[in-house]
Design goal:
Order of helices and strands: EHEHEHHEHEHHEEHEHEHHHHHHHHH
Shape: globular
Helix content: 40-55%
Largest sheet: 7 strands, parallel
Protein name: Glycosyltransferase N-terminal domain-containing protein
CATH architecture of the largest domain: 3-Layer(aba) Sandwich
Number of strands: 9
InterPro entries: Glyco_transf_N, UDP_glucos_trans
Family: Belongs to the UDP-glycosyltransferase family.
Keywords: Signal, Transferase
Radius of gyration: 26 Å
CATH topology of the largest domain: Rossmann fold
CATH superfamily of the largest domain: Glycogen Phosphorylase B
Strand content: 5-15%
Distance between the termini: 68 Å
Organism: Oryza punctata
Strand order of the largest sheet: 3-2-1-4-5-8-9
């Protein structure tokens, strides 16, 4: 079956940081000729309609489908359908219970289709899609959005019981069974759904990944190859590194900008301001759409930025990639008690980090050059002949074969159900009559 004959159904978690890479995957698959349907809730469909319409204008067969979000059944206000709309931590458990409840709506949608999709790609945090795919005999792949470094670390910590025996959030430990030496703490390597009341959600995520037909990773082998191979071996699943998916759209600024929420500021004014600055002179500060800093920390950050004379950006993988500077954060703010109003990163710490990165010294220059190398490798991975391009090709071939096999099995099952009933099923009792006659003869 050629890619042009395939229909992929994509089900992202209703959080913008998960929807955006799934939309990118939709474009990648459609770019290979497949038909792609992105299934989400009404609010999230409205948010992302522009980018889907842009894909269609580019000649890509991408469409949106909406299913209901039962948030009000779990105490959420009407219209709250995305994680960035949650105003306090008490809403999270109800939110994810509502996400899990979408199973029935998804199954009803799939059963109403004239033809079942060839593959369902679900976010790793949507394991509730697994029983739907099992009942309808649809191949299911799991898409992971975080780095494989993080995924593998969490897997190793759970496998070796570290989460069970370490109580202190800040107690340092070495990650066992890891390809490289990694020293961390519970706060920085907290796994998915590891909070009170979410134990079933966590078990479902683990089971959903373990039973998937394959795993998609939003990374590329030049940067995380050793972790990709180790994760595939640990899970025993077919695994493809198909990213970074965003690299496929780096040359189209409008398309990239339309993937997220509408900006709260004048984007054109910011672009104009950036154009007036020398190359490589501006630091971009971003904490994502879910992080909310406490007032004292925001003030301290602002003081540090003002003192440095530049904006500031937080690091991702300081130790492994060596492209960022450690700023001093010891525990994510989500794990601080509500009454904690202290400051984790001082203004002096901000100035120190910015200076190390931007002062033009040997270390800062080396980090910049290494970042440029990774950017070039990321682009190359997504181009024809690159590792991610090849992995995507292999995945499409795998899905084509698996879908054909499952379709044959499903058709065979339906044919068996439609076969004429046997004499026994029709109530033919001739056999029973012979046995009864024999019994009467013996009695007589």
């Amino acid at each position: 079956m050629a890619a042009a004959d395939l229909h992929f159904l994509l089900v992202p978690l209703v959080a913008q940081g998960h929807i955006i890479p799934m939309v990118d995957v939709a474009r990648l698959l459609a770019g290979r000729g497949a038909r792609v349907t992105l299934v989400t809730t009404p609010v999230n469909a409205a948010r992302n309609r522009a980018v889907v319409e842009g894909a269609r204008r580019d000649g890509l067969a991408v469409e949106l489908a909406e299913i209901a979000f039962p948030g009000q059944e779990f105490g959420l206000p009407e219209g709250v359908e995305n994680m960035d709309q949650l105003v306090d931590l008490t809403m999270y458990l109800g939110f994810f219970k509502a996400v899990w409840k979408m199973e029935a709506a998804l199954e009803a949608y799939l059963r109403a289709l004239p033809r079942r999709p060839d593959c369902l790609v679900a976010d790793a945090c949507n394991p509730w899609t697994a029983p739907v795919c099992d009942r309808l005999a649809i191949p299911r792949l799991v898409l992971h959005c975080p780095s494989v470094y993080f995924l593998l670390a969490v897997h190793c910590l759970a496998k070796h019981g570290v989460y069970d025996r370490v109580a202190d959030q800040l107690e340092p430990f070495e990650v066992p069974g890891f390809p490289v030496r990694a020293v961390a703490n519970m706060a920085t390597f907290r796994g998915f759904f590891q909070w009170p009341g979410a134990e079933k959600l966590e078990r479902d995520v683990v089971e959903g990944e373990a039973t998937a037909d394959g795993l998609l990773l939003n990374t590329f082998r030049d940067v995380e190859g050793v972790f990709v191979d180790a994760y595939a071996a640990a899970l025993g699943r077919r695994t493809w590194a198909i990213g970074p998916t965003c690299a496929a759209r780096l040359d189209d600024a409008d398309a990239s900008a339309s993937r997220g929420n509408r900006a709260d500021v004048d984007a054109a004014r910011i672009v104009s301001w950036l154009d007036a600055r020398p190359p490589a002179s501006v630091l971009y500060v971003s904490f994502g759409s879910l992080a909310h800093l406490r007032a004292k920390q925001v003030i301290e950050l602002a003081r540090g930025l003002e003192a440095s004379g530049r904006p500031f950006v937080e690091q991702l993988l300081v130790d492994v990639l060596r492209v960022g500077v450690r700023s001093g954060v010891t525990v994510p703010s989500a794990f601080l008690p509500a009454e904690a109003e202290g400051v984790q990163v001082t203004s002096a710490g901000v100035v120190k980090a910015v200076t190390e990165l931007m002062d033009g010294g040997e270390e800062g220059t080396a980090r910049r050059e290494r970042a440029k190398e990774f950017a070039a490798k990321a682009r190359a991975a997504m181009e024809e002949g690159g590792s991610s391009h090849a992995d995507l090709t292999d995945m499409i071939g795998y899905v084509s074969e698996l879908s054909a096999k499952k379709r044959q099995e499903r058709d065979a099952g339906e044919t068996a159900q439609q076969a004429p009933p046997s004499p026994a099923e029709l109530g033919d009792t001739s056999g029973h009559k012979i046995e009864a006659d024999a019994a009467l003869s013996i009695q007589s």
